[in-house]
């Protein structure tokens, strides 16, 4: 049989997933000789993705949980596109594209279908009936897959406990970042000083940072409440907020919300940035008081740049740090404890420094993106051999 360049298609809902989370995967498979395609809703970052030699198909996939009519249209658009392009492999990411992409790929007869779980819609405090509904949806989607990758070990264990994935399909592969890019050693003291000046931050002023979309579930309300308390003890402290608005989400926040807390003079909103690696270098503390996460890249990135982390004791966040070693865990939706943790680290810079250095060691050992990419490629090769028509399969006749 004549060899051909394998066609692989990534399915996501929004362009920032490609730009900031999956760009390494796209480049990796492109360099390995695959024809790389992407399905994504329209977005400003798609032009950057095209420059990497990736072909884009714009199909709107709404991220709201329940949009039946729109989802049905997306499903059939995906189906016709998959059938037309005859992909060898379809990879789906995040819940809604995971469901629609897997169903469409199965209907279209794609030989290899792989879903990646970054996190489930349900969590510890989800109402029972709602939780059972989401588990049912995950089970239906998983029936279509040849493999399901988990970035978070706790999600992997949850899937086994709830019997969401068939035996042999689920695989924990971890997550990773470019630890060379997120390395504080890249930035001199002069660079950091100049960066602060460009941001309008005075030298010697404590900086607390967060990198997250402007939605309530990232814990912004609790952070703003906590920051108000922090300013009582450290009145010059700056809160650096990095992340885009997310108007598709019903819990989307407007920057004007900080006026309710009286912290507007000490808060800097930077919006969506491409220099996040540089921005970590100006932070003294990184916070992510999120309600739910798959496996937070921002926590990995902050740790890799020796920034001490404060995050919530929820699935995903707690798996990304070692409590009291590489970061501090605080209870969910608890601004009082969040404020205490921030004040503690600002009051004890030597402890903060020690935590940050331990975070870098953990990143070097566990968060290297190359490990993740190798696992992905190995599994795809294994499935490709299994699905090859040249493989002799034992006869069922006796």
From TrEMBL:
GO molecular function: glycosyltransferase activity
Ranges of residues in domain Glycosyl transferase family: 194-361
InterPro entries: Glyco_trans_1 (IPR001296), Glyco_trans_4-like_N (IPR028098)
Pfam families: Glyco_trans_4_2, Glycos_transf_1
Ranges for domain Glycosyltransferase subfamily 4-like N-terminal: 7-152
PANTHER family: GLYCOSYLTRANSFERASE, SPORE COAT PROTEIN SA
Protein name: Glycosyltransferase family 1 protein
Native species: Candidatus Staskawiczbacteria bacterium RIFCSPHIGHO2_01_FULL_34_27
Lineage: Bacteria, Candidatus Staskawicziibacteriota
């Amino acid at each position: 049989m004549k060899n051909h360049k394998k066609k692989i298609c990534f399915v996501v809902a929004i362009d920032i997933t490609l730009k900031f989370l999956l760009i390494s995967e796209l480049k990796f498979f492109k360099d390995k000789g695959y024809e790389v395609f992407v399905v994504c809703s329209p977005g400003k970052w798609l032009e950057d993705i095209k420059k990497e030699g990736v072909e884009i198909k714009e199909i709107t996939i709404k991220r709201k949980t329940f949009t039946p009519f729109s989802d049905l249209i997306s499903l059939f658009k995906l189906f016709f596109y998959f059938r037309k392009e005859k992909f060898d492999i379809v990879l789906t990411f995040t819940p809604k594209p995971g469901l629609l992409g897997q169903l469409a790929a199965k209907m279209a007869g794609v030989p290899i279908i792989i879903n990646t779980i970054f996190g489930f819609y349900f969590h510890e405090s989800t109402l029972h009936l709602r939780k059972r509904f989401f588990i049912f949806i995950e089970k239906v989607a998983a029936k279509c897959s040849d493999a399901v990758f988990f970035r978070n070990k706790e999600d992997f264990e949850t899937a086994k406990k709830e019997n969401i994935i068939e035996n042999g399909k689920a695989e924990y592969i971890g997550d990773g970042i470019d630890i060379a890019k997120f390395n504080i050693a890249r930035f001199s003291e002069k660079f950091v000083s100049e960066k602060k000046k460009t941001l309008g931050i005075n030298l010697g002023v404590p900086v607390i940072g967060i990198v997250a979309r402007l939605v309530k579930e990232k814990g912004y309300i609790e952070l703003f409440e906590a920051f108000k308390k922090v300013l009582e003890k450290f009145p010059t402290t700056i809160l650096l907020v990095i992340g885009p608005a997310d108007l598709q989400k019903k819990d989307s926040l407007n920057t004007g919300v900080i006026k309710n807390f009286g912290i507007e003079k000490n808060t800097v909103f930077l919006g969506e940035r491409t220099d996040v690696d540089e921005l970590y270098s100006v932070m003294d503390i990184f916070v992510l008081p999120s309600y739910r996460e798959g496996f937070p890249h921002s926590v990995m990135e902050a740790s890799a740049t020796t920034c001490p982390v404060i995050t919530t004791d929820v699935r995903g966040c707690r798996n990304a740090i070692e409590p009291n070693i590489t970061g501090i865990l605080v209870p969910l939706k608890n601004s009082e404890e969040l404020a205490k943790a921030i004040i503690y680290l600002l009051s004890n810079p030597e402890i903060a420094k020690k935590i940050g250095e331990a975070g870098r060691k953990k990143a070097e050992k566990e968060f290297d993106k190359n490990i993740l990419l190798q696992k992905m490629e190995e599994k795809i090769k294994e499935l490709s051999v299994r699905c090859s028509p040249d493989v002799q399969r034992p006869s069922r006749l006796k």
